[in-house]
Structures are given as structure tokens and as C-alpha cells.
Amino acid sequence: MTNLTSCLDNIGVQELDVFSCALDGVNQIEASAGTGKTWNICALYVRLLLEKRLSVEQILVVTFTKAATAELHERIRSRLAGVAHAIENGDAAGDPFIEQLFDTTLAGIDADEAAKRLRIAVSTFDQAAIHTIHAFCQRALQEAPFAAAMPFAFEMEADDSALRFELAADFWRERVEPVAARVPSFASWLVAKGAGPASLDAQLARRLKKPLAALRFGDFGAAQTADMQALFDQACALWHAERDGIVKLLSDAKDALKANSYSTKIVGEAIEAWSAYFAEGDCHAPPPERALKLTATALAKGTKVKNTPPAHAFFDQADALAASAAAAEASQRAMWLDIVREWLDHAPSELAARKRARRVVSFDDLLSNLHHALVKHAWLAEALRARYPAALIDEFQDTDPLQFAIFDRVFAPHGPLFLVGDPKQAIYSFRAADLHTYLAARDGASARYTLAVNQRSTPPIIEACNRLFEANPSAFILDGLDYQPVRAGTRQRGPFVDNTPAAAYSDIADFCVWMLPHGESVLVKANAQRDAAEACAAEIARLLRGAQRGEVTIGKAPLSAGDIAVLVRTHRQGSLVKRVLAAWGIGSVELAQASVFGSLDAEQIERVLAAIDTPGDLRRLRAALATDWFGLDAAALWRLEHADAADPHGEPIDSTSWVERFSRYRTIWHERGFAVMWRTLARELSIATRLVARPDGERRLTNVNHLAELLQARSAEQPGIAPTLRWLAAQREQQGGGEEAQLRLESDRNLVQIVTVHKSKGLEYAVVFCPFLNDGASREASKSGLPDAREYHDDAGVAVLHYGMEGDEDDLASAAIAREQAAESARLVYVALTRAVFRCYVVAGSYLSSRSTKESRRSVLNWLVAGGGKDFDAFCDAPPEEAEIVAAWHAVGARSQGAIGVAPLPVIDTREPLEADASHEHEIAARTNRRILRDRWRMASFSSLIAAGARDEANQAQPVEARPDHDELAALDDTARTDAASSDESPLDPDDILAFPRGAAAGECLHRMFELADFTDESSWPAAVERALHEHPTPAPEALAPRLRPMMLRLIGDTVRSQIAPGMRLATIPTTRRMNELEFLFPADSLDFSALRRLLAAHGFPDVALEAGALRGFIKGFIDMIVEHEGRFWIIDWKSNHLGDAASNYAAAPLTTAMAEHAYHLQALIYVVALHRYLRARLAGYAYDTHVGGYLYLFVRGVRPDWRDGEEACGVHRGRPSLELVEALDRLMSGGAA
């Protein structure tokens, strides 16, 4: 028994008079929705400050979220300042709060002293003890670290999942793996169930969430199992020997078997299931469900009366096999639960020890550590009580047993302690909030009060809610939770006026219940929800249309879209409403308490970041590009996978350029952090522009920006790509992140609010629509296949985590769980209906689900009006018929004296979209600066110069460059090249390189092969091919994969034996006379791009699109190969572009076109300047005309000894710029004049 529950029992409930109630003891205040809870907390705070002569540091105020803490802080400070000002002026200025304070508290206190105390309180309010529960615990522990056995310095971790998983992985390795090694059947079972360290981690997380819950395990002794292998082998042998006979036997017995159980299709599926089962050869796997139709037991049940079931030895063996599999399953479950029990006994203490050793504390540790310290050291409670002589706990219905145990030990039984909350609004069980804790504390309070004046809603809405929740004495299902009627307050507000013709004609009630069609007209659930959303949208359009004409007003102002809310339970429902509203031309915004990590955008950002982490992994790259951020359609993605190409609109989609881009993003992330990388990516890829163009663009963009902010915060705590990706994956799995991860409002425009009921708590709206409160579906947690705990409360109200329940015990637990879920649904209905100020629309009635209306008839909304005098379990088992429910709703409406109107759901035949309000058509916006400030000093390469030129045309900013500069650009469009190819369509040889896969991976592979091969030693070529394929896997169709190696070997031979320059074949070039991947880096003090373009044109080279201005920095790159032949140095660049399948496609003219289209001539000139500078510095007596042969661009698919273009080799583009041009380029890159 707690200190609170040892206090006086059976205290009567009285209405709170906040200015005269006693400021001692433990006081429970039940504050119904809209009754001014915060107003009363402020009043109690002022009284404690003045009457108890306490400072702001001595009055503890605790609530459960940072947002609520901030609001309380501001409201209390504002109230103190207002009272101080009123005392000094001797005038309440019409404030009823201050008027009552003058008549009560201030009547017995010296005014000057009161004003002084209030001014001191306002000036020192930054030290006020207004905290979240976690902040309070942290401060208490910091003041008594020895009591909590905590280090003086520790690091706060919002998320301890990484440490938990580490502990689970260790336990798995040390405890589970040895067991699995000894028992192969258990190992197979673990694999089949998907068990792993994450499974143990999930169980520990649940336990830590409810540390004071009773942990119970059922009686699950290990079952005795037969020899599974022997049974399997016997049945398998018999099946293979007798299969045809079994099929004939079943065919002959067709008339004796029940047609609905043993149709030809069902029998055929069962036979195929047994064949597949035996083909798998896993004796530990249970037979498939469909196969069990052919057991002797099932056949006996499926045989018609007065007929003999078909008999065969296999049917008996199938029975034995199924029974043995069931026994084995029970045995494996028992072994797993033994492991879970050991894990939960061991893990919490071990986790705490590791945290102490590493000086790490999580938020939940703050509560458990303080509780343990209070249990162990009685003096700590006395010290905290002296530190905080008075306490007010807000939203107490959302407390959990551990939190309550802390307050109980510190403040009970003397107080003053005020527990303020509304049990009817306890809707956060998924956060471990425990209503039974509230009820236990309430029963032990020394005084119980209620707030009975609703200041939020108008009298008709209040009357409607009173009638609705009084219709059933057990409205909230659980014992001890009753509805106390409230009355309207004196709040002054402008009236709600609806003077539209439709309102005058139909006399719409302020609380309107729309009944779904019933009887033969009943709708299936999906159609019912769609029609409900349509009806709500039509009514919203009518109201807003009337507001535009001045017919629907609140006071003197027209009703606005932001005054309207549609309340939903799930995001699926919210999405439906948003789509329907959009179809009516009505803008809307969604508010929810769900985690942004559960959104589609979280999945997509994980795919994009994974591709950035490994840009060479084309599967990850394609997965990233398949997101809707990049605007690639299915055809573009297909071309990306199968070949380098350009889409019909001219956008580059070749994989090489994407690999280049993502590699650059990876370098930026490594060197400059996540934030810089993300801004670069979002700007270059126009993420915001693409998302905003979508119907849900504002929501999507808000999510993406939110995720980026969270990722940056995490990256700042633990830098590195891999840790950030692991954290993101864990957050997506758990959909965690706390308050910081809750979905944010996507727009602050005046839009209709689509709000989850959970998010709406504490808010109010002029007009509320509740289209889905009649949903009677139960919401069961997803199951992993592993035995899991059932969570419920026993008859004593104790929270229980129960493993291994079976039989009647499990049935009782299921009933308790169903009751608790239904009770929370009833509280959600209460929260939803009490949000309305002027008008509320509710959709009620029945729908079809699984060809029955039972699901909807037993919904808690119907329980409210039709369940009076009935047991809830009986009501669920046999809910009233549709006609009874309709009658019950009409009866409630009749008793409400006009407050509740009951009518059929409006049938919407045609949509009349809302026209935009003309008064908002011409909005004034500040002019934006479209200029881009460029960082002129940078590292540049050929590819970045070309890409920057393309970006200039689109007015995009210059990115950071970071990748080796070879073969970056797109291959030519395969389709265009094929059209231009020769008409020779003869089939290719099996080892012809023309059939080799295309794309970035193929190009990288061929580059690496040429780099590794010794051209003079043919025996080295197979090893070079193997290593290239290993380092750069090349995706290929199954039929083509075995031919890759022969193709590559032939390519080396064709290339090195071809005469690529007069008298020069690579077969004569030893490795000592060549350099691979020569990297160069030289300064470019002031490279004027305009002058560069003029210089190229003057020497007969095609123009190149370059950015405006100049480059100050460095030029870098990689030359594929430099070879020395007869004293002259040649630049070789490998190009794997597929230009066609004929020799003519690799002749001089097509190669010149390819060089010009991709500006390869500029690349070649940069390489020549690099070689010129290199030789000038390293070679004695260097002379350009003597020592430089030129450049050779080998389009290797067309290089072969027998392919000639006159006297020249096909596939070879040879060039040698003049010394005059090279020196001019050299001067230009050094900042001089050309």
C-alpha cells in the first residue's frame, strides 16, 4: 500500500473553489475538457506564493512535455505580472480572476508585501521550478549524486538503443548461439522466426518501458518430441512411392468428401504443397497449412455423413508428422521463453552497469535512478520535500507507475500536492501512461475536486456531450471512471451564425449526427468511409462558401478554413480526407503525433544516403534514383539499368554521371559534414521544387527538412556516415525520436486542419468533423511469430507482462486487453467530441466488414447510446442490430431537447469545388534575390567544368569537386546510335565486345582490366580480367554472364594488336614504358573561361559550354595511361561508349562527332597541358615537338585489327595540338593572356 492509498478513503467529490480550498494534503482535481485547468493551476500557484510565502524556486510544477512546460511557464509568469500590476494600481481592470483574488486571498494580506513578493517572483521567474518529469528527476539527481550512485559528470543520451543492442548482441553470442549449435532444430526455428539480437532488444525495451509491471511466465515445460528426421524420411519416401496412387484415391473419393472443403482446386493445392514440402528437405519445418488437408484427421472431418473417409498409410503418417511438428513447435517456444526469462532477469542490471562504466544516462534512467535512490535512502525524500514544499502535477492522467511512485515517496501524505488531470482524456497508453495509476492515486487522495464549468464550448455542445455520455452509466467501460456532467461558463464570445439557404431549409443542429445507410443499403467499410469524407467535405465547402458571401460568421468575422478541424484516428484516414478536400478545392494541413521516421520520406532519405555511402553500388544507386525526388520514370530507370542514355527530354540519366555525383556528395559529407552535403544535394537536384509540385508537396517537403535537421543533429553528436545510417535505420524500425521527431505542421496558412485525435487534445476548434469515430476495428499489435508478452492489468489494477499464456488464462487476458483497448477508444471519442466550440458533426451507424456489420455495431460510439445496462463483453459478443442502434441514436437526440440532431448521411451526387476567395488572389510578396554568389576559388576538373557550364544555363550553383576525372560523361544515346548504325544486322560472335553490357559499371570494369593487363604477356590477361570483374562487378543477363570473360580477353587482344598510330601497337609496349592513372594537379591562378572558348575556336576546335567568369584554384584529373614509343609520349584514354555494331560506326566522322558532343577535345587538351608541364619539369632537354606524340582516344568496342577506315584504324581518334596552342593554354591557365 502506498503512502497515498493509506490516506483517508471514500472522500466525497466536491466542486473546486480554487480561492478557498485547503492548501494542504494530497488533492486530486478532475478537470474535464474545457474547464480551465491551466487557469486553476495559475490560481493555486499565486495562492501558494502569497499564503504559504513560498518562492518560485520552492513551488514545483511538473508536466509531461516540453511544449506544455513552456506554456505553463508563460501563463504563470503572465498571471503573476498581471496580479502585481493590479495590486499596485488597486484595480482589477475587469479581470474576474483578480477580482476574486482581491475578495479572498488578498483580503487578508498586506497589499504592499503581496506586491513585493509578486515582483520578486516575476524578476526571478527564470529560476522557477517548472519542469518536465525528466528535468525534475535530473535536477534532483544532480543535487544528490551519491544517493543515486551516479558519476558527477555524465553524458545524456536521448536514445540508448545502440547500447541496448550491443548488450543483446553479446547475450545472443554468449547464450543463444551455443544452444542453437547444440540443438539444430532450435537453430532452424530461430531462423524461420527471424529471431536475432533485435528480438531480445525489443523485449528489453518493452520491459524498461514498464519497469514496475509484474513479469509473469506461464507453465511451458519442454514438450517431448519424436524423431523428426525419421518421421520426415518415412513420410517422404512413402509420398514419392505412392503419390500417383494417393492422387487417384482422392479423385475416386471426390463424391464422399465435402465439396466446400475438398474441391478439385483445394486437393490439387494440398498435393502440390506436400511435394514442395518434401522437396525442401527440412525436417524441422512444419508442413504447410494447405498440406494438412491430407491428414487422416482432416479427411475424417471433411467426409460426408454416412460415407467412409479415404484411407492410406500416408494420411496416418501425415497426421503423425503434423502432430510431431506441433510438439516440436511447443518445445522450441519453451526454449525461447526460457532464454527470454533469463535475458530479462539479467539485462536491466547489466545495462545499468555498462551505462555507469561509460558515464551515460538516458532519459528513462533519470526516473529509475531517482526511484531507486528514494527507495534506498529515506533522507532523500525529506531533502526533496524541503527543497520543494509544494507541488502541482499537471496532466496527471498521463502518469505511469514509476513516475507516481516518485511523487508518492516525496510528497505524500502531507503535501501540499495537487494532482490535476482528467482520466477521461487518458489516451497515451502507447507511451506507458497508466490510467490505473491515476485511479489508485485518486482513491487515496485526502481531498477530491472536480471542475464542472466548461469555458470552451457553447451550451448546445455541452448539453449534447452531457446527454451522450450520460446515456450509458458505463460509458467509459472501466470501473471507477464515471462521467460528471458539466455546465456552460460565462466566457464571452461572438455568436456562430449560419444564414446560408441550406441551413435555413434543413435547420442544422449544433451537434449533428449523420447516420450511415443501414439494412439493404448498408455500405462496405471503404465506401462508408469515403462517403463520410465526401459528406464532410461538402459541408465544409458549404460553410466556407457561405463565409465568402458573409453568411457564415463568428461574431463579426467570417468563418475561416483554419477554424475547421477534421479529426481522424489514423494517417490513412487523414490521407483520405486530404484527398477528398483537395477534390473539393479546399486546402488542408495535417497535424499528428506520429513520428516523422514512420513516413515515406524517412524511407526515401535512407535509400539516398545509403547510395551516397556506397556510390559504386549500382543496386543502391538505382534504389535511390527510384524515389520520387529525382523525377525519373520507369522508362528512365530501365535505361539507367541497361545502358547509358538520355531521356526523351534531354536530362542526363547515365549511371556514370550519377556515380560521379553521389561520390562527390560522399566526399563533401566526409570533409565538410552532413549539413553542407545536404544543402548541396537539395540545391543541385531541386528537391524542394520537385516535392512542392506534388499534391502533398508541403507535407513532403516539411518531412524532408525535418529529417535533415534530425540527421544533422545526430551527425554532430556522432560524426561519420556509417553511424548516422545505423541510427536512421534504428529510428525507422522503432519510429522513435521523442517529441523532436513528431510530425511538424507543414503550413501556417489558413487551412482546414486534419488532426489526429491524440494531437487534438488540449486544442479547440470552432467547427469539428468526426467522420470515423464509428470504426469498430480492434487494433492489434503486429506479430513477429516469436512468443510475445501479453500486456494487461489484473483484477488488482497491477500492470502485467505475461509470457507463455495458454488456454483459459490466455482467453481471460485477451478479454482484459480488449476491454482496455475499447476503454481507451471511448476516451478518444470523448476527447474528439469535446474539441468543438460551436458545431460538431459526427458520422455514426453501421458498415459492412468481412460481409458482416458486427464490427461496426460493437464500436464504442454505439456502446455509448445502445449499451446502457449491458455488460461490455456481452455487448461485443452480441451487439444490437442495426435498427436498434438507429433507434437508440434517435432516442438520444429526442432527449437532448434539440441539442443533438440525427439525420441520414448526406448523399453527394456531384462535387461543387470551392472557388478561391478573390480577396486573397493578389498577395504581396517580397522580391527575392536570384543571383548566385560563387566561391571562385575551388578545385576543378574537366567534368566539373563541363557540368558547371550546363548548370549555368539552369542558374544552379557550383558544387565541390571530388572524383577522379576519367570517363565521367554520358555515353551516347544507344537508340540514336543504333539508328545511325550500318544496316548490317548479322549476329554477333559470342565473344564480341559489342554485346558487352553498357553503363558505368561496365566502363569501370574495362578501365581496370586495361590498367592491370601486361600488353606484352598474354598469360597475364585472364588474371587481369578476373580481378577487374571482382573489383567492378558488371550486371549482366543470366545468358550473357558466362560470356563476359571471353569478350574481355578478346578485347585485350584486338586492342593491343591493332595499329593505333603509325608503327605503334600496344602489344610492343612493356609495363616499364607506360604509366597508369597518372594523377595531375596544377594551379590555375586565373583561368578566364571566355578567353578559353575564344582560343579553342581560333584553333578550329568546337565551342564548349563553360560557366561565365574565371577559375581561381587548381585543375586536377587522372590520365588513363601514358605510353612511351620510340622516344615520344602518347596520352591514351579508354572510352567504352557503344556507338553501334558496325565498323562504320567507329570511323573518323562518328568519332569526331562523339568527341565534340561530349567535349572530349577539351579533356584531351587539358591532359596535353598536364603532360607538357610534367615533361618540362622531369625530362632533360625536353622539346614538345620532339617528345610529345599526341593523344589517342580509343573507343575500344570498335578497335580491332581488321576494322579500318581507309588507312586509319577504326575506334581510334588521334590528335596532336600545336605547340602554339599548348603554350597559349599553359599561359591562360597560369592567369596570363592567351
UniProtKB/TrEMBL annotation:
Catalyzed reactions per annotation: Couples ATP hydrolysis with the unwinding of duplex DNA by translocating in the 3'-5' direction; ATP + H2O = ADP + phosphate + H(+); Exonucleolytic cleavage (in the presence of ATP) in either 5'- to 3'- or 3'- to 5'-direction to yield 5'-phosphooligonucleotides
GO MF annotations, alphabetized: 3'-5' DNA helicase activity; ATP binding; DNA binding; exodeoxyribonuclease V activity; magnesium ion binding
Binding site for ATP: A31, S32, A33, G34, T35, G36, K37, T38
SUPFAM superfamilies: P-loop containing nucleoside triphosphate hydrolases, Restriction endonuclease-like
Swiss-Prot/TrEMBL cofactor(s): Mg(2+)
Region (Nuclease activity, interacts with RecD and RecA): 936-1234
This enzyme's EC code(s): 3.1.11.5, 5.6.2.4
PROSITE patterns reported in the protein's UniProt record: UVRD_HELICASE_ATP_BIND (PS51198), UVRD_HELICASE_CTER (PS51217)
Residues at the catalytic site: D1133 (for nuclease activity)
Entry binding sites for Mg(2+): H1007, D1120, D1133
CDD domains: RecB_C-like
Domain of life of the source: Bacteria
Co-factor: note: Binds 1 Mg(2+) ion per subunit.
Keyword Magnesium: yes
Limits of the UvrD-like helicase C-terminal domain: 459-762
UvrD-like helicase ATP-binding domain: residues covered: 10-458
Family from the record: Belongs to the helicase family. UvrD subfamily.
Oligomeric and partner information: Heterotrimer of RecB, RecC and RecD. All subunits contribute to DNA-binding. Interacts with RecA.
Record's function text: A helicase/nuclease that prepares dsDNA breaks (DSB) for recombinational DNA repair. Binds to DSBs and unwinds DNA via a highly rapid and processive ATP-dependent bidirectional helicase activity. Unwinds dsDNA until it encounters a Chi (crossover hotspot instigator) sequence from the 3' direction. Cuts ssDNA a few nucleotides 3' to the Chi site. The properties and activities of the enzyme are changed at Chi. The Chi-altered holoenzyme produces a long 3'-ssDNA overhang and facilitates RecA-binding to the ssDNA for homologous DNA recombination and repair.
HAMAP family: RecB
Other remarks on this protein: In the RecBCD complex, RecB has a slow 3'-5' helicase, an exonuclease activity and loads RecA onto ssDNA, RecD has a fast 5'-3' helicase activity, while RecC stimulates the ATPase and processivity of the RecB helicase and contributes to recognition of the Chi site.
Protein's UniProt name: RecBCD enzyme subunit RecB
UniProt source species: Caballeronia zhejiangensis
